Amino acid sequence: MIKSIVKNSIGILLFLWITGIVYAQKPIDYVNMFIGSTGEHHTEYGGTTPAVSEPFGMTQWCAVTRINGISKTMYHYDDPHLLGFMATHQPAVWMGDYGFFTLMPQCGVLKIKAEERAVNLDKKSETATPYYYRIATKTEKEQEIITEFTATSRCSFFRILYPHQEKALLLLEAGRENAGGGIEIIPEKQEIRIYNKERHDAHLGPELKNLCGYYVLKFSKPFVSYGTWKETTVQEGNKEDHGAKSGGYIEFGSDGETVEIKISSSFIGYEQALENLKQEIPENSSFEKIKKKVKNTWEKELNKIKIKEASTDDLTTFYTAFFRTMQYPREFSEYGKYYSPFDDQIHEGISYSAFSLWDTFRAQHPWLLLTQPERVAPMMTALIQMYQEGGWIPKWPNPSYTNIMIGTHADAVIADAYINGYRDYDVEEAYRAIRKNAFQPPLNDTMYRWGDRHLWNGGYEARGGLTYYMKNGYVASDKTDESVARTLEFALDDYCIAQMAKELGYDKDYEILMKRAQNYRNLYNPQTGFFQARKTNGAWDQSDVGFTEGANWTYRFCVMQDAAGMIDLMGGKEKFTRLLDQNFEEGHYRHDNEPGHHYVYLYNHCGRLDKTQQRIPQILAAHYKNKPDGLSGNDDCGQMSAWYLFSSLGFYPLTPASGEYALGIPNFKEINFRLPQGKRLKIKAPELGTTPLLTHIRFNGKDVNKPFIPVKEILNGGTLEFLAK
User: Fold this and answer.
1) Helix 312-324 / helix 287-302 crossing angle, nearest 10 deg
2) Which residues does 708 contact at the CB level (< 8 Å), separation at least 6?
3) What is residue 8's predicted lDDT score, i.e. its pLDDT?
4) Residues 84, 66: contact at Cβ < 8 Å?
C-alpha cells in the first residue's frame, strides 16, 4: 500500500514537472530579475535592472555593465563586460541618476577607466534575486574573484573573496563629471567616506546646493596600502581627494582574503549614514543574517498572493511583476528625517521619491492601495510636503522638479486614494495642492512654448498651457507643444479633483471642474473621427501634431472620465466597438506605452465584456514573457507590471477616482489574495482554458449584472467567480 502511494506520488510529480504545472510554495523563488533587462532598442525593452534592496529601498545596489545616464541604465543583459557595482538612485531608463558611487574589486594593477577595468561577464556565474547578487569574474591570471552582496533600504553588505597570491585591490569611484564627488580614507578605523553631488537631470530642475549622496564604508580587513586618484593620476598614500573623475583605492593582503564591507547611504550626512547603518546592519550582524532578513522581508510581501495552479513561466512572470511594483516610489526619509530637494533643507518626518506619475496613476498606485495600505498615506504626505516646500506637487520628482512628461497626475493619485477610503493624511492640504494645479497656470505660461522635458527656466511647468485651456477650453497648438495630449489629460485630472471636491463640500469647484472634464469634446473632429489639435483662433491644426509619445491613434480613445460621452461622440456603442476592433486588429494599439493601457477595458462600456475577455489573454501573451526581453516597453516604475497583475486577477482600475474596477478575465484558475486589514479575496475561474469566455460573474454568491465592480467591495474581500454562461 505504502509503495503504491509513493509510486503514484512520484508519477504525479513527474507529470507536473513535464507539463510545467507546479504549485507555488515560495513565490520569491519565481522572481526573474532579468525580465525586461534587454531588447532591440532602449524604447522596446523594460529598462529594468537586477538591483538589490528591500521593498521601496532608498538606495539600490546593482552590477554595472555600462556607464549609466539619461536613457541608459547601468545594467543591460546583453552587455559582455562587468565594470563594477554601484549604489544607484536611477528609477527608470528615461531618468538620470544622482548621488551615486561605484566600486570594483580587482587584482594586480589598478585600472581606473571603465574600458580598462572591464572584465568578461559570465552569465553562468551570475546569481540575481531581490535580496542577493553574486558573480565570479576572472583575473588576468585566470583566478576567480567572487563578489556577492545583499542590501537593505539604505545600506548594503558586500562580501568579496579574492584569489591567493594576487594583489587584492578595490577601486572606488566617487565622482565622474561636473559636480563630482570626494573620498576620505581613514585607515586606522578601516573606514572610508565618500560623497557624490552629481545629478543627471540637473538641467531640468532647480539648483540644489545641498543635494549630496553620502556613504560610509566599514571594512572587515585592514588596508595594506591605499591612495587616491584623479582622472588617471594615482597618489599612493594620499587620504583625501575631491572633484570630477576622482576616487581612491585600497589594497588588502594577497593570501586569498574574504573582505566584508558594510556600506550605508544618506542624503543628510555622514552621521546619519552611520545611524542608518546602526539601524539596518547592526555591528555584530553577519552577511548571512542580513541576507536572510532581506529575503524574509520580500517573502512576506510576495506571499500576499498565492496562485494555486499555474505554469512555471506564468508564475515567474506574475511574481516578477509583483516584485517590480514594490520598488517605487522609493523611500526618501531616514529614521524620522529627510532631505527635501524642493527647498534644499533637512526636515523631520517621512518622505518618498521617484513618483513616475504620468505612468503610475493608471495602475501602479491603485495596485498599492491593495497591497501596501500602510504606505499609501505616507506617500500622499510626501506629495503634500513637496507642495509645501516647493510650491507645487511635481510631475516626476527625480528627486526634485524635472518638467518631465505632461499633466499633473498627482491629482488622480491623491483623489483616487481619497475616494477609495485612504484619508490618514492632511486631506485639506492635499486638496489645496491639487486644486492649485487646476486653477493656477505656471509662471510665464504665455511666454514659453512648453514641451516635454522643458529646460528649467526658473519655474515649474505644472500644467503648461493652462492659460489657453481655461480660456478656450483646450490647449492651443500654436502656443504649447503636445496640445491634444495636454487637453485630454487636463480634463481627466479635472474630473479626479472634482470627485474629491464633491466629497469635501466644495460644490462650486465641483461644478467648474466637471464642466472642464468635458473639454475633450473641443478637440474632437467629427470629419476624421480623431482628436485633433486646434490653434488659438479655433482652426484645426495638422492631424499629426499635439501628441505625447504617440500619434492620433495612440490618443484616439484617451477619455477615461466620460467613456459614455466619448462613445456617443464617436457614433454609439456599435460603431465604437468597431473602432476598438480596428485599433487592435490593424496594429494601432501600443501596449509598450501608457496612453492606451485602458483601451481593452473600454469594451465594457459598450456592453461587450466578451471582447474584453477575448483580447486580454492575447495582450498578456504578446507583451509579458519569462525571458530577458520579456517586456515590450519600459516598466516605468511598476506601471507595466501593475497592468499585468490587475489583468491577471480579472479586474482593472479603468477610471481613477471613480471608485470602481472594470472586469476582465483572470489568468489563473484560483488566486488567493491577502488584502489590507486582514481581509481575504479569492478569485476562481474553474473553467479557464476549457472555454474562451467567462462572462457569468458572481461576487460572494451574487450575480454581478454589469462589467464593473466597486473598489470597496474588493477591498472588503470575498469570493469573485468567473464562470461560463
Assistant:
1) 100
2) 604, 660, 661, 662, 663
3) 47
4) no
The whole-angstrom separation of Cα 194 and Cα 177 is 15
- From 646, 560, 543, select the one nearest 599 (Cα to Cα): 560
How far is residue 370's CA from residue 416's CA, in Å, rounded to a whole number?
12
Cα dihedral sign, 502-420-614-593 = positive
The cell for 152 is 537593505
- Enclosing H/E stretch for 414: helix 410-419
State residue 458's pLDDT score. Answer: 84
Q: What end-to-end distance do the CA atoms of the chain give, in Å? A: 43
Question: Whole-angstrom Cα distance, residue 721 to residue 665?
Answer: 10
- Please name the helix (run of DSSP H) or strand (run of DSSP E) that holds residue 582, with its range, or none: helix 573-585
Q: Among residues 466, 429, 422, which one has the least CA distance to residue 444?
A: 466
Q: What is the pLDDT of residues 55-106, one digit of tens each?
A: 999 999 999 999 999 999 999 999 999 999 999 999 999 899 999 999 999 9
Q: What secondary structure does DSSP assign to 519-554, as a single string?
A: GGGGGEETTTTEE--B-TTS-B--TT-S-SSS-TTT
Query: What pLDDT score does 145 carry?
Result: 97
Phi, psi of 114 (to 5 degrees): -60, -45
The three three-digit cell numbers of residue 264, written as one number: 550605508
Q: Please check whether residue 325 is in contact with residue 632, taking contact to mean a CB–CB distance below 8 angstroms.
A: no
Contacts of 128 (CB under 8 A, 6+ apart): 33, 34, 50, 52, 63
Q: Is the pLDDT of residue 15 over 60?
A: no
Q: Is residue 128 predicted with pLDDT exceeding 60? A: yes
pLDDT given for residue 42 in this prediction: 52
More confident site: 460 or 388: 388
Going from the C-alpha of 268 to that of each of 83, 200, 321, 334, 347, the distances in angstroms are 28, 20, 32, 8, 10
β-bridge mates for residue 524, sequence order: 531
* pLDDT band of 11, cuts 50, 70, 90: very low
Which secondary-structure segment (H or E) carries 262?
Answer: strand 258-266
What are the φ/ψ torsions at residue 626 (nearest 5 degrees)? -90, 70
